[in-house]
Specification:
It is a single chain. Helices cover about 70% and strands about 5% of the residues. With about 260 residues, it is mainly alpha-helical. The chain has a two-stranded antiparallel sheet. Strand 1 and strand 2 form a beta hairpin. Helix 3 runs antiparallel to helix 4, helix 4 packs antiparallel against helix 5 and helix 5 packs antiparallel against helix 6. The chain starts with a helix and ends in a 19-residue tail after the last helix.
Length: about 260
């Protein structure tokens, strides 16, 4: 959506919209979104926030059910719940700012812009705190550390740029502020993508289960083809062991294989 809006504004010859100030040469996203592309702007904001909130909810559910590494204490559950609450606030801000455009509702638009930025930034702080605690408890799960550092980088970069954006906007350096707004929005897009990385373990575990099902069919001699390894007194298939080493199973979520004839436990 952002790329489409930027391309359209450039192709049209970088027009000076009525919502722009006299000395402003670079349009804000809100300036472009308040014109002919307003339906695209509203649709894009709705789709982005809905999918992000679904990712939040899915991650929380998968941890609750043990598909992903479980929250081992009340603190992590509280942090997760707070992150969802503030994400919903950011969702409302983004959708409403796209509806109440800067041309007809400038004050409301800026208020919803602040709600959007503050909501998702505070939400990211709670998510980062949750992942930091999970990474300490589940040191064997590399993906938790990766996600933590990615989200921490987002918080720091977004906070610095947001402060610079607010300062330049209120000091009426509109061109600089417009550039910073575009940068903030593109960085937010990458933040959304980090949640798909968080959900990858669940997808990989599903693929491992399908592989185990396919390879457990009988061979010509009637034997089972799945390789088995022991881990902490548990008999695991090769794909389950791989999932364990990569941190794909949450604590207590490792499937227990059924013993075959002749095996003593």
């Amino acid at each position: 959506m952002l790329i489409a809006m930027l391309v359209v504004w450039s192709v049209e010859g970088s027009p000076h919209y009525s919502s722009m100030e006299a000395n402003q040469r670079i349009a804000y996203i809100s300036d472009v979104g308040a014109q002919g592309l307003k339906p695209l702007f509203i649709a894009g904001c709705c789709v982005t926030t809905i999918f992000l909130d679904l990712a939040f909810a899915s991650e929380r559910w998968l941890r609750h059910t043990g598909v992903l590494a479980r929250n081992y204490g009340m603190a992590e559950k509280v942090l997760s719940a707070l992150s969802i609450v503030f994400a919903i606030g950011g969702t409302c801000g983004l959708i409403l700012l796209s509806i109440f455009d800067t041309v007809h509702h400038s004050k409301l638009h800026r208020g919803f812009l602040l709600l959007f930025m503050a909501g998702y930034l505070i939400s990211a702080i709670f998510v980062c705190a949750e992942y930091q605690r999970l990474g300490v408890h589940y040191r064997q799960h590399r993906i938790l550390r990766l996600s933590f550092w990615m989200k921490l980088a987002f918080i720091l970069i977004e906070l610095i740029i947001s402060i610079a954006f607010a300062a330049t906007m209120f000091t009426r350096h509109q061109n600089v502020a417009a550039v910073l707004e575009w940068v903030v929005s593109f960085i937010f897009t990458f933040y959304v993508l980090t949640f798909f990385i968080d959900l990858l373990p669940a997808l990989r575990m599903r693929q491992s289960d399908l592989y185990d099902h396919n390879t457990s069919t009988s061979n010509f001699d009637g034997t089972n083809d799945v390789s088995l390894v022991y881990s902490n007194g548990q008999l695991l298939s090769g794909t389950q062991a791989g999932a364990r080493d990569s941190g794909y199973y949450g604590e207590g979520a490792m499937p227990q294989p059924k013993p075959t004839a002749g095996q003593n436990f």
